[in-house]
Amino acid sequence: MPVTTSLATLRSRPVVAADWPGRVARERVELQLPDAALGRLRVALHAVWDVLASVALLAHSRSLPQFPYRVWARTAMVGLVRGPGADLLRWGATWPKARPPRFLLLSPPPGGCDLDAGRQQLLATVPREMRQRVRAEFPGGVPEPFRGFVTDPERAIGNLCDAIEVYYEVAFKPYWSAIQTTLQDEIRHRGEMLAARSVDGLLSDLHTRIRWSRPKLSIATDVPDIALEPTSEVILVPLLFAREQVLLSDSPAGSTCLGYQARGAAILSTQLDGDPEAGPDRLSVLLGRSRASVMRHLATPRTTTALADMLGLAPSTISEHLALLVSSAAALRFRRANKVYYQLSDAGRGLLRDFCNLDDGAASSGESGQDDTPSAQPRRASYL
Description:
This protein is of the alpha/beta class. The chain folds into two domains: 26-265, no CATH class; 280-365, Winged helix-like DNA-binding domain superfamily/Winged helix DNA-binding domain (Arc Repressor Mutant, subunit A), CATH 1.10.10. 45% of the residues lie in helices and 12% in strands. The chain is built from 15 helices and nine strands. The protein has helices at residues 3-10, 35-39, 47-59, 70-78, 84-92, 115-123, 127-137, 148-151, 153-204, 282-287, 289-296, 304-311, 315-327, 346-356, 360-365, and strands spanning 27-32, 42-43, 210-213, 216-221, 233-239, 247-250, 255-261, 331-336, 339-344. It has a four-stranded mixed β-sheet with strand order 2-5-7-6. The protein has a three-stranded antiparallel β-sheet with strand order 1-4-3. Helix 4 (70-78) packs antiparallel against helix 9. The two termini are 34 Å apart.
């Protein structure tokens, strides 16, 4: 079935979130990286990856997603009530595991891909290759929402690219300059890390779900049926909408791509100029953007590692912010079992209420995320 038919039939259905368990059992997949592949490691942007990751975020949210995506999502959803952009969200609600289909995650060329280049790359994909990619992702049979990419790949890709263009204009274009700057900063950071600490240091510090022990890269995933072959090239794709996921893709040329959550997603929490629904982010003006982001995530107890994963910041940066929040009595530090946790104090919750217009329930119940303490009741998994 062509993707237009799939999108059109889904248009009348409600956007229903997938079931999100409180703790997802994850398996590990392994990738062998010979020295030749490590020598060709590079970091590159791909706008289509982030666009599709953001579709997964919106399509699988029961309500507005958590900080730092809430302001961005509210702005985006105003223009996604109907039309191709809304159809794309409804199609995204059918994606397994709330993640973009791997067959659409193409390898970025040297220099990376903006949206126009990414759309052209999809349109240039020959039908035979697209069919192979779809069938490889679904060896047990292609689900109905994706069959158009097998029966009529050219038409399906064309209609998808049209929908992506409409979605981008509404959801991404207002933020694209800030997103691009943030991701370019991430690439520079990774380049400096590669120069200072070698490829081993870079891969060891990339993501908490990635473990590196030469020559093996081990990745925790909720998609255990991924088969990764030895690769000739590794491409790291920084994303602002990956959240806790590591996105994996490969190419016929033998490259393997890893999409990971970059630092700096807090830029999406900044109110756009001219939005009549909200004023400036007063907490960020007072504390600075990243420290305000840390504070918003302390409505429930968090570890340093959990905060680093959620916000895409270095653990050392998180530790500095936490130390200042504790010393100013805005946060509390305590130990449970063998882990150290941080949580807002009464003064900190009052500050959030005063500066973020939160009611008492939101400031005290942890609206911004999932409690990661061992005693927390199972809840919907964190979006970050």
